[in-house]
């Protein structure tokens, strides 16, 4: 309990609000699943009412579903937001936001973005008539300048994938507000446990829920946490775009959320231990992780984050070929594209990013960079494995 506010995570408070169904006295402790495409209305009048209701959760699952509503309310509570919309992937949440708030107008985006987001802005946004100006994540004067010309959307990502750069959300929120632009931030790497960005002035917090929120590597999902007003606007496009999360994945996501705080505590601890270990290794040139005191934004991290997250990256001597050798020799982490699950995963961003359509990969991703996402394993085991792979 903190200042009268309970810390118990929200999945359990949602369970406490459940009502008995079908004349039962007992109430489900675990959420029920509603794998139905459509819902039958009792009368023609009720059908007509549901057909035009915004964000209905009992008309047609593409419009909404009780599993969406329950899972979204848990995520909204974790982020301190009014509401949340669920999508079929993180990219669906991001692109729906860009199209809803950027079409026919101008987006100001940070240059250091996940390769898929950068790829969309570089290669698809121009075809949709969306103008994009890029500013480096730490260039506040650049954001100030860019936001002196009318803009509708500012898009940030913090910490960044794969270099763990951190962006000053409060400072850019002030500039976005002055320009009348909506501020959306991809907060996937931090999770709501390590940072609360709506409180710093973000209007929309985006996640690839495929990662920490789901937490088990067994679903693909995205989420936008925001106000009821902005959610209505996003939903008006989203139900027509049709990138709806299935009821089953929404239900699985809620299951994952029940352990999010404990998982994140372990990810934070383990990744910090592995990052510290790597800084001592002679074959490693540089380590990137928010836990490190020599991180270029250490002061901002202390203000903005309460934990560093489970993703780190490091550069090895010898560039791409040396990095490929290290990745091939590792035994514990899977050589797999995602992160946020119970087991460690490793990728070579230079190889992965070049397939995502962004024009600026070489400038942003060092060739010898290895991204390692720790899982829930003992960090001592990972350190031992890294030592043999780097030797
Ligand atoms: C920071 C970030 N944002 C968005 C995405 C895209 O998410 P998804 O793969 O769920 O579409 C990813 C995927 O790795 C990511 O790392």
TrEMBL record:
Its cofactor is pyridoxal 5'-phosphate. CDD domains: CGS_like. PROSITE patterns: CYS_MET_METAB_PP (PS00868). Keywords: Aminotransferase, Pyridoxal phosphate, Transferase. Gene3D superfamilies: Aspartate Aminotransferase, domain 1, Type I PLP-dependent aspartate aminotransferase-like (Major domain). Transmembrane segments: none annotated. GO terms for molecular function: transaminase activity. Belongs to the trans-sulfuration enzymes family. This is PLP-dependent aspartate aminotransferase family protein. It comes from Dactylosporangium maewongense. The lineage of its organism: Bacteria, Bacillati, Actinomycetota, Actinomycetes, Micromonosporales.
């Amino acid at each position: 309990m903190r200042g009268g506010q309970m810390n118990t995570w929200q999945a359990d408070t949602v369970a406490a609000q459940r009502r008995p169904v079908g004349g039962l006295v007992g109430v489900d402790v675990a959420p029920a699943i509603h794998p139905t495409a459509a819902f039958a209305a009792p009368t023609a009048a009720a059908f007509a009412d549901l057909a035009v209701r915004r964000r209905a959760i009992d008309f047609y699952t593409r419009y909404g579903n009780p599993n969406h509503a329950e899972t979204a309310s848990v995520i909204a509570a974790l982020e301190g937001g009014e509401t949340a919309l669920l999508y079929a992937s993180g990219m669906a949440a991001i692109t729906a936001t860009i199209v809803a708030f950027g079409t026919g107008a101008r987006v100001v985006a940070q240059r250091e973005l996940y390769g898929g987001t950068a790829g969309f802005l570089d290669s698809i946004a121009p075809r949709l008539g969306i103008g994009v100006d890029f500013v480096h994540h730490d260039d506040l004067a650049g954001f100030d300048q860019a936001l002196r010309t009318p803009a509708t959307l500012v898009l940030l990502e913090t910490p960044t994938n794969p270099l763990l750069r951190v962006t000053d959300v409060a400072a850019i929120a002030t500039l976005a507000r002055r320009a009348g632009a909506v501020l959306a931030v991809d907060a996937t790497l931090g999770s709501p446990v390590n940072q609360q960005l709506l409180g710093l002035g973000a209007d929309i917090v985006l996640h690839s829920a495929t990662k920490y929120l789901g937490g088990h590597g067994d679903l693909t999902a995205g989420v936008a946490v925001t106000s009821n007003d902005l959610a209505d606007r996003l939903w008006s496009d989203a139900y027509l775009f049709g990138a709806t999360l299935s009821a089953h994945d929404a239900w699985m996501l809620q299951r994952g959320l029940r352990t999010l705080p404990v998982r994140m505590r372990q990810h934070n601890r383990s990744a910090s231990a592995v990052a510290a270990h790597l800084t001592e290794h002679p074959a490693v040139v540089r380590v990137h992780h928010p836990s490190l005191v020599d991180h270029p934004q250490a002061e901002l991290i202390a203000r903005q984050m309460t934990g560093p997250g489970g993703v780190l990256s490091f550069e090895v001597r010898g560039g791409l070929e040396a990095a490929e050798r290290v990745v091939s020799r590792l035994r514990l982490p899977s050589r797999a594209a995602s992160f946020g699950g119970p087991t460690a995963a490793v990728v070579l961003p230079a190889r992965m990013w070049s397939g995502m359509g962004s024009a600026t990969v070489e400038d942003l991703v060092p060739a010898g960079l290895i991204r390692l996402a720790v899982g829930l394993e003992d960090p001592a085991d990972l350190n031992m494995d890294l030592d043999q792979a780097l030797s």
